[in-house]
Every structure is written in C-alpha cells, then in structure tokens.
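Re: [help] complex structure
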Amino acid sequence: MKEKKNRQVSGKIRKTLIQAGRSWQLYLLLMPGIVLTVIYKYIPMYGVQIAFRDYNPMQGFGGSPFVGMRWFVKFFTNYKSVEMIKNTMLLSLYSILWTFPIPIVLSLIMNQIKLERFKKVSQTILYAPHFVSIMIVCGMLRIFLSPYGGLITTLVRAAGGGNVTGLLDRPELFRTIYIASSVWQDTGWGMIIYMATLSGVDITYHEAAQVDGANIWQRILHIDLPELVPMIMIQLIMSFGDLMNVGFEKAFLLQTDLNKSTSEIIATYVYEQGMLKGMYSFSTAVGLFNTAVNIVLLILVNRISRKTADISFI
Amino acid sequence: MRKTMKKAISLAMALTLAAMTVGCGSQSGTAADTAAETTDNGGSQETQAKAAEEGDRHFTIFAGISPLSPDNSEKPIVQQMNEAMDVTIDWNCVSGDTLVEKRNLILNSGTDLPDAFMGAQLTDYDIITGGASGLLIPLESYINEETMPNLCAVIKERPALMASCTMPDGHIYTLPTISEMGFTYKDGNEYFIGAIPQFVSINKKWLDTLGLEMPTTIDELHDVLVAFRDNDCNGNGDATDEIPLSFEWGHWCANMTTLFSAFGFTDYNEDHRAVENGEVYFQATTENYKNAMKYFHEWYAEGLIDMEVFSQDDSQYIAKGAADDERLGVFTWWEIPEVTGSHADEYEYLTYLSGPDGTLGVNLNEQGTTGHNSFAITNVCTNPALLLKWVDQAYEPITSMQVIYGPIGVYFQEQPDENGVYIETAEAGGDLKARSELQGPSRQLSSDFGTYYYMEARAQQRLDDLNNVWFEKVDQFEYYPSVIYSLEETDVINEHITDIKDYVKETSAKWLANGGVDEEWDTYVEQLNNMGLQEVVAAWQSAYDRYMEAAK
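Output below.
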C-alpha cells in the first residue's frame, strides 16, 4: 500500500520532469533571472540581521553583539518618526492617485488618433523626459522655482498668484511640486505598456461595434477599457507594493530646511543616518520596518484585487 | 523582395552588434594590458627583491582631496616623498560630499580596507570605535626618533601635541596636524584665525548713494536695509533686484549669527555650545536666542532677508555677490573679495551692532591649533613602520610648506630670498592651493612664518582684520577649548547630538521664515530635553572641567 503510494508520487515527479525536459529551453531562459534574483536579492538578506545587532565591521554580520529591538525603539521614540511615516505614506498615495490614472486616460485618447505620424511624434515627446537624470530635473526645478526670476514663480505671479516667493520653501507645496514634476517626467513612459496592450485589441471588436452604431466614447468604455483592466490591476498591485519605497533621490534633492516637515521621508532619513552618519544598524532597522510595511500592503492590495477583479499575483 | 530586405537589415544589425562586442572586447583587453604594464613598471624586479627583504613597499591610501584637485599621485610633492622612501602608493582619492559616504562604507564594510586613511575627515567617533574594534592600529610605539624624526622635532617644540591625539583608551591612532595662524591681541593672549568666522560686510557705495550713515545699532541697520530694499541702489534701472541681507543658514562662515550680537551673543559653533565663567551651556535654548529669532523673523517678513537663505549653496551665493550689477547690500563670509569679485572695493566690514537696549555680546568661536584626524593606519597594513617613515616627511618644514600650499616652482618661487625664506609666486592663492595642496598631516608653527615661508597675504589680512576691527567690541574672551572626551561622554554625545542639531536647525529656520516663536518655545525646549540635551551638556561640562583641571 505504502509502496504503491510512493510509486505514485515518484511517477508524478517523473511526469513533471519529463514535461519540464520537453520545454527545457524555456527553463534555460529562466535561469539567468533566477540566478540574478538569488544573488542580488536573497543572499544579501543575510545582512538584514544587523538591524538587531550593534554592527561592527571587525566582528562582521554574525559576530556583532545582539541588541534586540534597540534600533526599532530608537526609531519609534524619535520625534520625527510619526511625521516621517505619514509623509512617506501621503507622498506615495498622492503620487499613485495622480500618476496612475493619467497615463491610462492619455493612452486611451492617443489610441484613437488615426494620424500615425502625429501619434509617433507626440508619443516620443511625451516619454522623452523620462530619460532626463533626476539630478538634472531637480536642478531645473530649483531654478524654475527660484524666488528671483524663476520661470514658474514668474508665471504664478503673472497668473495672479500675488507676490509668491520661495515656492520650494513652503512645506505645503512640496508634494504638489514633487508629484507634478513626476507626472511631467513619467507619464509618457507609463503609457507605453498600455499602448502596447491597446494595439493588441482585436480590430474586429471595433468593427462590429461600429456596425452596431457605437460611438467613440462607447467603444472606449466597452472595448478598450475592459481590455486594459488586467494590466491596470497588475500595475496597481505593483505600485502599492512600492508604496513605501519612494525614491529618496528626488525628495533629498528638493529638500530645504523649511520644507522638511513634509519632505522628510523614511528613505531620506535612512540615507542620512546610514550613509552620511555611518549608523548602519539603525538605518537597516528603519529600512526593514519600511519593507515590512510594503509587504503587508502588497498582500492586502493583492487580496482586494483578487476578490474584486479576480486578478492576482501571489 | 521585402523579406530579403528585412533579412539584409537584420543581418547588418547583427554584424554591427558583433563588431561592437568585438570592439569592446579588444578595448578592454588593451586596458587590461596597459594596467598590467603599469604595475610591471611600478613594481620593478629590484623593488620586488627589496620588498622581500624589508617587507612591503607598496601601499594603498584612501585620501580626501579638494574638489579642484587632481589625483594625489600626480602631485610633485607626493612623487618626491615616494622617491625618497622608495615606495609606491595606490591612491583612492575622493572629494566633496561623497568623501564621508565612501569613508563610512569602507570603515563599515571591513573589506577592501586601505593601508591608511589620509585627510579623510575621520570623526572622533570613527577613531575611537575603529581603535576599539582593532580596525585602526595604535601608533604610539612608532612615534620615536628612528621612525618619525620630523614629528619628534615638532613634539620637542610643542610638548602637549601628542596629548591632543591620545584617545580616551590611552592609545594614539591618528597623527596630528598643527597650524598656528594667530595673532597676539592687546590682552597678551594669542588668538587664532577662526576666532570669528562670519564677517558681516555692507555695501558702502549704496550707503553713499542713498546718503546714509554707517549703522551702529541693529535698528539703524534695519532702516538701512529698508532703504536698500526700496531703492535701485545698483542703478541698473530695476529697483527689485537688490537683496538687502543675504546669508546661508547653518553655514560655518556664511551664517548670520554675527548679527545676534545685538541680543547679547554670537552662535558660531555648529553644536551651539558656549561657555561663560566656566559654565558650559547650549545657546539655542537661551532667552537671548528666542529674542533674536523673534526679531529677525520681522526682517524676513518685511522682505529684508534673501528668500533663498535656507536653500542656496555657495555657488548661488557667490553668483549674487559677483554679478555684473552687484545685488547684495549686506552679506556674511570669511572675507569680502571671494563673494563680491570685482565689486570688492564697494564693501566695508560692518562690525558688531548693539541692540535696542544697548546690549552687545560676542562669544568667540572655538579655536584650536591642532587637528588629529589627518592620518590613520589600518590593520591590513603589513609594514606600518615604512608607511609612517614616508608620512613623517610631511612634518619636515619645507616639505610641510609644499604639502599645505603647493610645490616649489609652482606655488613658491624656485629660489628663496636672501634670508632663505620662500616667497609665493604671482599665481599663488585659493584656487592654486586647492589644486596643489595635499590634505594630510602637516606642521605650521607660528615660528615657521618668516623662517621658511611668509604667511599668505589673505590670511595675514584676515588676522589684521580680526585684531584691528573685529576684536574691538569683544569683551568676553572665553571659549570652549579642544577637549578630549572620555568613552562614555563620546557615546552620550554621539547618540543625541545629530538629532538635536537637526531639530534646532529646522525649527529655527521655520521661526525665521514663518514666526511662531512665542507659541512654540516651551514645546521646543521640552522636546530638546527629551532628546537628551541635558545629558549632552553635562558631558561637555565634565570634559571641560577635566581639561581645565589638567591645564592648571
């Protein structure tokens, strides 16, 4: 009886192996990706333990004295921690709120443009800013927002904004500046994936709809949009997984002493503490907390999306 | 037809790709070859044989350099020092902001350690923890006539020198730097070049154009600034491009705290530390500080203060001063010409102003003549004695001169004058110094000026300005000395001080720009106390007391 079961199991394994062997080329293609992920994502996780240790290079990751939750306590009793977590969350949420739907809407519109040449040119123009280095974008922003003759400052004044000054120094405007410039920079790039999906929509759907007398609006709503939904959901899950991972460079480069009350996010703090002040254990602990929140969010959004749209990753 | 075309194109592309890869491959091959060749040249057979005899003659050094500077290996003085000791050095030179970042990474990775750190701005914390963990090796056994004769000569003249390098655990992990650029004030004491780092200057031409007097109180300055704001002082037809008062918030020499004298203090130290009658205290929680914040917020609200004081960097600041039409009415810097360029002669110093009730108080900046973080050797160095012999050359006066400024023949004239004293060339100055200096250990005793070389003109100018202009209104000469902290004190200070400084900097910036001092003051003080301010002040005090006890 037992032997039979064993044979059954080994038979199953053999079957899987034979199946795998039949498409070994695919597995071969997959290999580099798996190897890279293991080397660069999984092996370094060994170092995460310094979040619970008082790291000292001579004693190494495993040998440094164990301090338990000391660094987490230090972080949560810090006067800035609540503000930082809040800033990170809000910056991310607002970012998704604005930068997520705009490429979708724009690609739906763009898809209706029949003039191929115009479509190509405008698409190129839209995604070109994506390739500008973040350093340069922030430098430009600082110049445009300068109180003395900055382009944007002057425009706001001309548009009746009164005698506005130091736009970058105003904490309440930091998120607007950050997100508006992201929209400018990344909308075109974000459109590419949707444009690709839309170009794969079976043309006969549209023809049939036209015969049935559907106008453009109805066709977008009932043909294009539903085709996009799976892609939209996957993108949404992914961006929530990154919710707490706001890139530190931009926030750091746009930071001034006056806007710190909204521009100090976890990522900039980790950089300051770890890289500039050399407190590696502390900044690892903060980073670990950040990642933990990310994982929880990812699972949460994935679950919601599975329930509502029947699309999920994990 | 179309298909063949497509095929042709893809074939062409594949070929190009292949060609590119081949190109890259061969290129990298050549690079590797050259590298191999260079190493071959560097480690000739003779030296290799020698290395076997007396240990390793090849070192790697992680070094801090000025942003304008080339790699240290290209500097004549380094080549000279290498030849004299027959050593080769691989330099890893880093400048600017990345220096701290890279140094921290190296110190904390524990791998790829260099043999030594030179001019790498090691902090006391780095030195103490590095020493405790064994990453940096103790040097005291090497500091003797045989290995370091030149350093010993300096120690003979300044017997207290090594005490400043001795860490609380009793070991010396780093070599000293000494620079005695100072003057003897009329009270008989010697003061040094950093005593007052922030000189305030005012545009005299603008004052004359508007027919105004040189202000002597803070309220008079206020009225002058209002006039600067409202008039087209530089006469370019635009009455709005004048900036009445500019500075850089939190900057060591461009901050505005010289103006705080009207409220009874100046706050030059970046830790806001001061001492009066033997009592160490924190300046940013005093009533005076509060009053100053309140007062200068009004200036900000009236548009008298540059709106970019919290975000501008040096280059933006200097661009304003040196623009074709000068834009700055009053500004702060350690001298006038560097900021104002061709407009330098329009500006004059605006010395300490008194407050509304006649208050005038100055706290001198902390001054030290010695530094102790310019050279440290790590535990991977197999031949520390030779490396120390090599670096000891930098304590020889003429070599030291070239280390601090630049080589003879470039920075100094080939031939010394009839007294044997080296004279600067016409090109000497800030830029050339930044390009040719070697950041690392050096000696500059007060007796070296006039014996080996003359003091550079702008340093001399600055000392004269301090002595004749700026010290005139100073009547409190106490300052916090270069103390040595114990291990516990270092731990306490290091744990809290960065958060405290950040909080003060941000909150004060907010008060200056938006006001609200009165409402927020109590929570601010309480917050600072929660952040461990009292413990930090106590640590400062105990180190100070120990220092004073020893000095008796």
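The longest helix of chain B spans residues 2-42.
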